[in-house]
């Protein structure tokens, strides 16, 4: 009988916080910048330099902890994690081991109709390390310390996930919570959200955990999913061959779709942690926690329910719109101006998504204003422009955030409402298309489409198609 295996997965998710300055100094956290230009004696580990804690880091960490149902540690402190690596200038990292800022939380994920709680063991604050840049041409490695000292929170889950699908749902839920809080942009491609996967397998029915490995270098949801499938298969193959799984850190190569061993897995004692002597403990009062709770914005789950009840838009539309905080804000602001939620939703779900896909634009990068989208909705609803002209105008709004009123005026795109002029064009079209006219009169309903098309062409698209259809029918009778 073939053995059945179960995958057991826990994640360590590192999130770069959206502060303007680093965790212990005043250097910029902006992504990019020439190497080693966002640095000072503190974040390059110069002897005698002293850290000063950025209060905003604590508030972002508390906000994420509260949103993930965690208990806030009211007296928490920093510890030194000692290790030697070229991108770590002090030869230690300031982190939290003994008293992390938040613990014992959960987030609820949904897979189809099934809901499941994924436990959060702890959440701690720490500083990021620098970045090694390998120059294969010169066979050298250079260090850029711009990232050194950028504030991070590390969110450590319980080993509660059983599949790549559950991992994706958990990461997506975390990403949306953090983005809605404004605590981070969570861009995997820029490294502001990174996940290390701890994975083991065991026979179905057993309760004892197998030997786990940790996989690093995962910078996209697809890479994480492939790495989970690849490592699961590798471990099962070892067990089937009677070999042992070694506890180690492995690096995933997404191009080769293969992981290889980096080093044996360290335990806490390998880092020789001790309390950080240069930073005082953080005391978080009940009042501070209450104030943070009051400031928490409406998160996606609540927003989703409100959109369905208040705006009466379909669940599918609400789901897509609230997947991005920027798009949700755009929807609400536009609706507040024009008062037509379903029409706004239609523009976002239709033309906006189409152009985003066509031009490879992320929702967070949408440039058009709620005012201009509202103007376009009003122009279309009033019949000032027809639907095909509206799509043409929206392409300009999408690309350049043009003012639809001015654009329509300057380009002469208003719908022609002169019945006399329209009747003249219709008479000419019928005379020039006797076959289609005869077919329609003979009962072939589809023939009207060709005549409407010819009329719209003659009117340069500036007529109301419904009105053209109505007047054509009247003329043919």
UniProtKB/TrEMBL annotation:
Class of the enzyme per the UniProt entry, highest EC level: ligase
Catalytic reaction annotation: L-glutamyl-tRNA(Gln) + L-glutamine + ATP + H2O = L-glutaminyl-tRNA(Gln) + L-glutamate + ADP + phosphate + H(+); L-aspartyl-tRNA(Asn) + L-glutamine + ATP + H2O = L-asparaginyl-tRNA(Asn) + L-glutamate + ADP + phosphate + 2 H(+)
E.C. numbers: 6.3.5.-
One BP term from GO: translation
UniProt-listed Pfam families: GatB_N, GatB_Yqey
Alphabetically ordered keywords of this record: ATP-binding, Ligase, Nucleotide-binding, Protein biosynthesis, Transferase
GO molecular function: asparaginyl-tRNA synthase (glutamine-hydrolyzing) activity; ATP binding; glutaminyl-tRNA synthase (glutamine-hydrolyzing) activity; transferase activity
Asn/Gln amidotransferase domain boundaries: 329-476
Coiled coil regions, renumbered to chain: none
Transmembrane segments: none
Classification via InterPro entries: Asn/Gln-tRNA_amidoTrfase_suB/E (IPR017959), Asn/Gln-tRNA_Trfase_suB/E_cat (IPR006075), Asn/Gln_amidotransferase (IPR018027), Asn/Gln_tRNA_amidoTrase-B-like (IPR003789), GatB (IPR004413), GatB_C_1 (IPR042114), GatB_Yqey_C_2 (IPR023168), Gln-tRNA_amidoTrfase_suB_CS (IPR017958)
Role played: Allows the formation of correctly charged Asn-tRNA(Asn) or Gln-tRNA(Gln) through the transamidation of misacylated Asp-tRNA(Asn) or Glu-tRNA(Gln) in organisms which lack either or both of asparaginyl-tRNA or glutaminyl-tRNA synthetases. The reaction takes place in the presence of glutamine and ATP through an activated phospho-Asp-tRNA(Asn) or phospho-Glu-tRNA(Gln).
PANTHER family listed in its UniProt record: GLUTAMYL-TRNA GLN AMIDOTRANSFERASE SUBUNIT B MITOCHONDRIAL AND PROKARYOTIC PET112-RELATED, GLUTAMYL-TRNA(GLN) AMIDOTRANSFERASE SUBUNIT B, MITOCHONDRIAL
Protein family: Belongs to the GatB/GatE family. GatB subfamily.
Quaternary structure and interacting proteins, as annotated: Heterotrimer of A, B and C subunits.
Name this polypeptide is given: Aspartyl/glutamyl-tRNA(Asn/Gln) amidotransferase subunit B
Organism: Hespellia stercorisuis DSM 15480
Gene name per UniProt: gatB
């Amino acid at each position: 009988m073939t053995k059945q295996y179960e995958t057991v997965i826990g994640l360590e998710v590192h999130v770069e916080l959206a502060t303007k300055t680093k965790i212990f100094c005043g250097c910029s956290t902006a992504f990019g910048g020439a190497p080693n230009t966002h640095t000072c004696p503190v974040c390059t580990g110069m002897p005698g330099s002293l850290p000063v804690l950025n209060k905003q880091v604590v508030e972002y960490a508390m906000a994420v902890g509260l949103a993930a149902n965690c208990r806030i540690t009211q007296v928490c402190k920093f510890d030194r994690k000692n290790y030697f690596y070229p991108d770590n200038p002090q030869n230690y990292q300031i982190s939290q081991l003994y008293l992390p800022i938040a613990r014992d939380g959960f987030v609820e994920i949904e897979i189809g109709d099934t809901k499941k709680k994924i436990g959060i063991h702890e959440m701690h604050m720490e500083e990021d390390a620098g970045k090694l840049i390998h120059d294969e041409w010169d066979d050298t490695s250079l260090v850029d310390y711009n990232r050194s000292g950028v504030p991070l929170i590390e969110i450590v889950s319980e080993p509660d996930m059983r599949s790549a699908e559950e991992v994706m749902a958990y990461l997506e839920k975390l990403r949306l919570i953090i983005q809605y809080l404004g605590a981070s942009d969570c861009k995997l491609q820029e490294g502001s959200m990174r996940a290390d996967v701890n994975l083991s397998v065991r026979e179905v029915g057993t309760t004892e955990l197998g030997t786990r490995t940790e996989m690093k270098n995962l910078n996209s949801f697809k890479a994480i999913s492939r790495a989970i499938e690849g490592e699961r298969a590798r471990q099962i193959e070892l067990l089937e061959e009677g070999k042992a799984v070694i506890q180690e850190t492995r690096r995933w190569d997404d191009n080769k779709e293969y992981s290889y061993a980096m080093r044996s897995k360290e335990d806490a004692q390998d880092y020789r942690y001790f309390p950080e002597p240069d930073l005082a403990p953080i005391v978080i009062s009940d009042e501070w926690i209450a104030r943070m709770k009051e400031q928490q914005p409406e998160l996606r789950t609540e927003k989703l329910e409100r959109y369905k009840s208040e705006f009466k838009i379909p669940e599918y539309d609400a789901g897509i719109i609230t997947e991005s905080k920027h798009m949700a804000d755009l929807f609400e602001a536009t609706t507040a101006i024009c008062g037509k939620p379903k029409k706004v939703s239609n523009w976002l779900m239709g033309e906006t998504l189409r152009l985003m896909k066509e031009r490879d634009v992320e929702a967070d990068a949408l440039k058009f204003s709620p005012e201009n989208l509202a103007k376009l909705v009003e122009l279309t609803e009033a019949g000032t422009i027809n639907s095909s002209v509206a799509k043409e105008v929206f392409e300009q709004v999408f690309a350049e955030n043009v003012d639809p009123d001015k654009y329509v005026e300057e380009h002469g795109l208003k719908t022609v409402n002169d019945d006399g002029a329209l009747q003249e064009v219709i008479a000419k079209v019928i005379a020039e298309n006797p076959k289609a006219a005869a077919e329609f009169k003979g009962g072939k309903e589809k023939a009207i489409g060709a005549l409407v098309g010819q009329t719209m062409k003659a009117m340069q698209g500036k007529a109301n198609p419904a009105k053209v259809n109505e007047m054509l029918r009247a003329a043919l009778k």
